[in-house]
Amino acid sequence: MGKMQVVRVAIIGAGGGGLCALRHLMGPRTLKKTDGDGDHQGVQFEAVCFEQAAKVGGTWAYTDQVGRDEHGNSIHSSMYKNLKTNLPKQCMAFPDFPFHNDLPSFIGHEDVQNYLEDYADSFGILKYIQFYRQVQLVKPMHDKDSRYGLRWEVTTRSVLDPQDDGETDVYDAVLMGNGNYAIPFLPTLPGSESYEGQIVHSHNYRRPEPYRDQVVVMLGANASGQDIALELSDVAKKVYISHNKAHLQSRFPDNVKEKPGIERLDANYKITFLDNTSVNADSLILCTGYHYDYSFLAPECGIEVKDFRVTPLYKHLVNTKFPTMAVLGICKRIVPFPFFDIQVQFFRAVLEGSVVLPNEADMNEDTECDYQERLSKGRPHRYSHEMSGCMFQYLNELADMACVERIPKNYEVIYDLVAFQRKTDVMNYKKMNFALNDKGDGYVVL
Questions:
Q1: Would the pTM count as exceeding 0.85?
Q2: Are the beta carbons of 397 and 346 closer than 8 angstroms?
Q3: Is residue 192 exposed (0-12), middle (13-18) or buried (19+ Cβ within 10 Å)?
Q4: What domains does the chain contain, in order, with CATH numbers?
Q5: d(C-alpha 110, C-alpha 129), whole Å
Q6: For a tag on the chain, would you pick the N or C end, based on fewer CB atoms within 10 A?
Q7: What EC identifiers does the entry list (predicted)?
């Protein structure tokens, strides 16, 4: 067996994606069917994870704070106090690390935070994380002596020291797990300067009590819009869900009504909808999604974001210009932790050399074909990374290319059932409890 080559990897963010990356690069190795003699293609990883917060968890690390923290950084988490997951733990867990048996299927954010802390402890990866460390700049540098012909300059600074000018180190690869739920997308609404009510993005929503006896309009009908509307229905006088999607199939409480998108805002708390009806609302909550943020990447990295599409990424993951850079979890409508698990193993296989990528032109062509296929199916440009109906096919493709185990079939079975229940019975689906069957390819509803 030849000499091991050390590959230094910089991981950005210690949320679920970053922890998963550390687990597969630095944690105890789970031998797969193609590992053979276990020499990992002659590669030994040396990873460091930079996390600007005080602890692991990323968006799952709940805080009552909104706006900026005591160090002047934007609050990262979008969790609200009473949030319950909209996926059951049985299809939410990393495949090799189940949630505790004594938890119900739908769990609170604090349970997920505890789970991620347990995951980090169990795999012994906390020692590779530098907390309170913010990435300032990532820049490629050609290096003919590198295994990949390229290295990365990564500049970080302490968030605790305003005088810190930063320090730069060099890595062979960069894996970004900095999350997609920290920079709110704020749509331009005509007349918003005249509106006298409160306008808040769901990123800054924490609890229902401030909305007691109010009329509230929610703009957006995805998971957060529906969940917060249900929560507010217990305290608010009236809640309107404003959106341009097809009519919601589920029944809602009597004081929750659907409306089309917003035409404009006016004085006297007036909100006019696209059907020319209007209401006087005390508050408007924007459930309008988030921006991708890679502002720490130098332009030479080649990563661009245009109208919610990140390019040039092969398989929604690998930078086609510099394939030693990967962006974890940018896709929507996914099961995040299993999704990270397959993506990380695929990227590890790329770095090891057991997956040989096509050339840049062919990867870009593959990416364009995927994009055009989505457009041909009627998906708008901004849904370029949406995985509805194709997530498990995508994950199976990556797993097969990397010769690692696929996500167990029961994940897909439960995911599909819950997706249907959420669409048709949003008021009750989180009361369901599941147990996996003995064969591991299905479930029992308890």
A1: yes
A2: no
A3: middle
A4: 5-182+290-410 (3.50.50.60), 186-286 (3.50.50.60)
A5: 21
A6: N
A7: 1.-.-.-
Location of structure tokens 């919610």: 308
438: number of Cβ within 10 Å: 8
| Mode of pairing for the β-strands spanning 283-286 and 443-445 | unpaired
Amino acid sitting at position 84 = K
Residue type at 181? Answer: Y
User: Alpha-carbon distance 107 to 60, whole Å?
Assistant: 12
Cα distances (Å, whole numbers) of residue 170 to 7, 153, 432: 11, 5, 49
Q: Which two tokens stand for residue 231?
A: 């929560």
